[in-house]
Every structure is written in structure tokens, then in C-alpha cells.
Amino acid sequence: MLVSKKDRDILRGLASQVAEIAALPDQQETISSWESLNGLEPVRPMVMIDQIPWHEMNGDDELTLQTKGDFCRGIETGLRRTLYAWKHMRADMVVEPVIRIPKIIHGTGFGIEKIEEIAVLDAANDVVGHRYFDQLETEDDLEKIRNPNVVLDVEATARAEESAHEIFDGILDVRMQGLFPMFAPWDLIAEWRSPEKLLFDLADRPEFTHQLMSRLTAAHISLLDQLETQGLLGGDQPTIHCTGAFSAELPADGYDPTSPRAKDLWTCGMAQIFSAVSPATHQEFELAYAEEWYARFGLVYYGCCEPLHKKIGIIRDIPHVRKISMSAWVDQEEGAEQIGTDFVFSRKPNPAFLAVDHWSPEAVAQDLCATIETCERVGCPLELILKDISTVRYQPQRLWEWADIAMRLVGA
Fold first, then answer.
1. For residues 259 and 162, what is the distance between their CA atoms, to the nearest angstrom?
2. CB neighbours of 318 closer than 8 A, spacing ≥ 6?
3. H or E element in which residue 176 lies
4. Which of the 8 DSSP states describes residue 222?
5. Distance of CA 160 to the CA centre of its chain
6. Residues 353, 84 contacting (CB under 8 angstroms)
7. SS3 380
8. Would you tell me which of 10, 205, 268, 350 could form a disulfide with 241, CB atoms 3.0–4.6 Å apart?
9. Residue 75: what pLDDT?
10. Count of domains in the chain?
């Protein structure tokens, strides 16, 4: 693909700024702190911010794109966001002297595309409401779920790699990146059948639900097998589900960077729609199937927005689990007591603090202090992961101040 001189000069200028930041001693210090936390021997609680409403953040044109080509604009977006985050809401982010270019991989789907209507409040925001239409009414409909047919587009990937080297050689290391698959079949089922119907199915049609999960789990395992066999899994892994993934335990012995294996990597998974189901139901219809996936990987991050404080007992049995999501809706005391020192208490502070009419730093500090004090009392390794931020009411300073408060409270 052709890259104009102007686009190349713009990207090299941004890359030079990233390289300067990546050379700072702070980077290795932060990586070491993540490794300590992920090894369950934390130096202090760690802080990350992700899933940001970028459309609300560009007050001074810091994020305004200047390149013209689509390939260059995608890269420029990532570089500008890295520089912006480092300047305004750094927290415990790590900046590496690397530009990761995704390999062009096709055929990773499962045969069904969601059919939906959406509701939009802010046309600039990609966070919208969804109404899904049922595509899995009968046993025959399960035949719609197909195993993936993974194919690397060799020529397109080679062109992207060549262009990346042309732009960044001498400044940043170009790394072609494969995929980091996750296991979240219930997110897909909610889109294909609808949240209401799948929940009724758990009670009214358990055999149908088991058939569905069996078929979809097999499709996931087929995807993983194909990615692993073809050397298309991701390699070095700086994050997992919006948290730092640096670990002294990974990759596993015998690692080949040209052909990563599942056991060299973190994976993550969740069953967010199971927020209100019992531990027994969660075990029967989710974890009993998920264990095959998790057993393949080196380390596991489990959970997302679902409250898991009453389910630590069954999560303990997940192979290689290391971090457990503690969403804004958990009982933190109960969750901390159940987790103890055995896993990372991955706290998701409520992003609603940034969306209210009147911004209150005091309320944020009080909320974060409650988590920190609870985990200190019990001895839980703790990370604070602010994510799912749908709006800051077009006041980006709220997010900057949240980062400052969090880092002060964790003693950074």
C-alpha cells in the first residue's frame, strides 16, 4: 500500500514522541510493579483506565488526525491516544518502543451475525442501546452455528508489514500481531437469541441450552486450534481485559515468538448475562463448558460487569485463574473475604461518577478509599480498572482528575 511522504512524516513525528516516552525508566518500573501484582506479591495497588469516550476528549485538537490514508489514520489514532493518555491520565499505563500491526485474518466468526435495532442518544458516541432479534428459536436453528475457517491473508499482511517498516524503522520496533481470543459465548447468545429468551431457556429448555453451549464451545475450541496451529495467536501481551498483563510466569518454556501457543498467553472470559443466576446454574451452563478453554491458557482473567462476590467458590476451580473481576455491583467485603490473597481483586469502580451532572472529586475519593481499605484489611492484591466510560459529559478534565486521585490514594 502506498504511503505519502506527508503521512509518513506525520507518523514518524508522533512515533518519535512515543519512543522518547518508552525510553523513560518509569516504564520498566511500572512493568515490574505489574509483574509483582500478577504474581500475587503486589508492591501497591495498580491503576488502569480504558474504554474511553474518545469523541469527548479532543478539547485542544490533540486527537485531530492529520494523515489521509486509511492505513495511516488507523495507526495515527493509536499513537495520538497513547500520547494523550500519557500526558493527561497516565495512571499505570506502560508505553513500549513498539508499533503493533494486526495481521489480516479472516474467517473467525461462528456463522451467525447479530440482527438488531439500536437506540442513539449521542451520534458521536459508539455506546448505544441494542434490541436483538431471535435467530435460535429451534433445535434446527443450532445448525446455523458453524466452526470458523481461519485464513491469513498473506499478501495483505505482507503489504501492511512492509508499509509499517517503511514508516517506523529506526524509531519503533514493528511487530505483526495475531489474535488474543476470549471465551464469552453468553455475550454472543444474548445477541443471537435475546437476553430475555436465553434466561427463560435456562429453566424452560435446559436440554436445548446444553445443546447450544456444547455446539458453541466446540466452535470456540476449533477457533483456538486453528489459530494455534497456524501461528496466528498474539505474541507479547501488554494487557488482558483492560489490565496490565505483564507476568514473570509467561510465556511458558519453549516459547517461539513466531508461533505462540495458548499456554504462553492470558485469556479472559465472562458470562455477564448470568448476573442474577445461582452459582449452581452458573456452574452448569457456563463454567462446565469454559474449563476446556481455560485449561489451554497460561493465566486467566475471569468476569466483567457481572457481580461475582457470591461465586468465588466456583471460580476457584477455573484452571489457571489469576484475576477475578469485582464490578461496581459487588459486595466488596464479601468478595474480598472470599478472594483473600489467592487472586487479584480486579475492582471496576463505577464510571457513573464521571457522568453525573455535578462532578464530585470527593465522591470519587470516598469510593476508591472504600475499596483500598477493604482489600488492605483482608490482604487482597488489588487493581483499580476504570472502564466502560460512556461519557464524561464532554469534560475530559474529570477523567484526568480521576487518575490523579486514584494514583495518590494507592501511594504511587
1. 20
2. 287, 290, 291, 294, 300, 302
3. strand 173-177
4. H
5. 24
6. no
7. coil
8. 268
9. 98
10. 1
Are the beta carbons of 270 and 302 closer than 8 angstroms?
A: yes
Omega prior to 251 cis, within 30 of 0: yes
CA 53 to mean position of chain CA atoms: 15
Residue range(s) defining the domain that contains residue 389 = 5-409
Q: Residue 279's domain is classified under what CATH number?
A: 3.20.20.210
Of 343, 330, 331, give the one whose Cα is nearest residue 383. Answer: 343
**Dihedral of CA 350/282/285/217: which sign?**
positive
The answer to whether 91 and 48 have CB atoms below 8 angstroms apart is: yes
Spatial separation of the C-alpha atoms in residues 210 and 202, rounded to whole Å:
9
Q: Which long-range contacts (CB under 8 A, 24 or more apart) does 306-313 make?
A: 306/270, 306/271, 306/272, 306/273, 306/274, 306/275, 307/275, 307/331, 308/335, 309/334, 309/335, 309/338, 310/279, 310/334, 311/279, 311/282, 312/338, 312/339, 313/279, 313/338
Closest CA to 221 of 151, 279, 150, 300: 150
Amino acid at 194: S
For 261, what's the count of Cα atoms within 13 Å in the CB-facing half-sphere? 13
127-145, pLDDT tens digit by residue?
888 889 999 999 999 999 9
Q: 3-state class of 88 per DSSP?
A: helix
Residue numbers in the chain where pLDDT is lower than 70: none
pTM for this prediction? 0.96
Strand pairing report for 239-240 and 243-244: antiparallel
Say whether 251 sits in a helix, a strand or coil: coil
- The answer for residues whose C-beta is within 8 angstroms of residue 4's C-beta and 6 or more apart is 68, 69
Instruction: Please answer whether residues 269 and 216 qualify as being in contact, where contact means their C-beta atoms are separated by less than 8 angstroms.
Output: no
